[in-house]
Amino acid sequence: MAERTTLIAGNWKMNASGEMAVTLIDGLVAWPGKDGVEMLVCPPFPYLGPVGALISESDIKLGAQTCHANASGAHTGDVAAEMLADLGCSYVIVGHSERRADHGETDADVCAKAEAALRAGLTAIVCVGETEAERDAGKTLDIVGSQVANSVPEGATAENLVVAYEPVWAIGTGRTPTSDEVQEVHAAIRAGLASRFGDATANGVRLLYGGSMKPSNAQELLALADVDGGLIGGASLKAEDFTAIADAAP
Ligand code: 13P
User: Fold this and answer.
1) 6-247 belongs to which homologous superfamily?
2) 75 is catalytic
3) To the nearest whole number, what is the mean pLDDT of the chain?
4) Rounded Cα distance, 12 and 15, in Å
5) How far is the CA of 167 from the centre of ligand 1 (A)?
6) Quick check: CB of 55 below 6 Å from ligand 1?
7) pLDDT in tens, 90-131
């Protein structure tokens, strides 16, 4: 199996202030690091520049929470992937379930955004995940499989693609699927990628789990064979919790 660097990614969502960002980043840059673990922070757009400056002397990576599909143009309020790259981002999250719900983003929209990320030289973190009703109906693998098939662009490689599995019902709820359920979905995602891109690419793509990951459950989740990191919301806002999750990586 390919060696995959663990990615511990913090999605701050619409949370931060200048003061909070400084305190949080102070705590993260003091983290001594861990072999085989990459740390990423994804603040809201206005804080990308300041946070980028604060982490510039560290190994912590910078990412954004979404981007527009186009490189420039008349799109008031939107931000191009090229601008993110220009600001020092190396990652961008696309297709988070909150974007899919709040902004009506479809798989096709997400795919176009991921393509934009690749065009700009960024790594796209493509998010997928079922709702509670879909899980209860036994449709999880179908839903996630089709989201991956339709949201991941043709040009994806092990270097420019990360897939995050985030069950919608586990986000911010304190609930998580069982380890067996997480591993089942991750293995299915990797198998889907293998059938489209081949084993070498699929074995190199990192698959993150997201949804109520915290210090107390991180070790078990991160130890799963096809879990290569976490996409963390609430617990990424406290340096102590976020670094504890990073330390829990195998
Ligand atoms: P929580 O960790 O707050 O459940 O959020 C997960 C998430 O949506 C990360 O993108």
Assistant:
1) Aldolase class I (3.20.20.70)
2) no
3) 97
4) 6
5) 10
6) no
7) 999 999 999 999 999 999 999 999 999 999 999 999 999 999
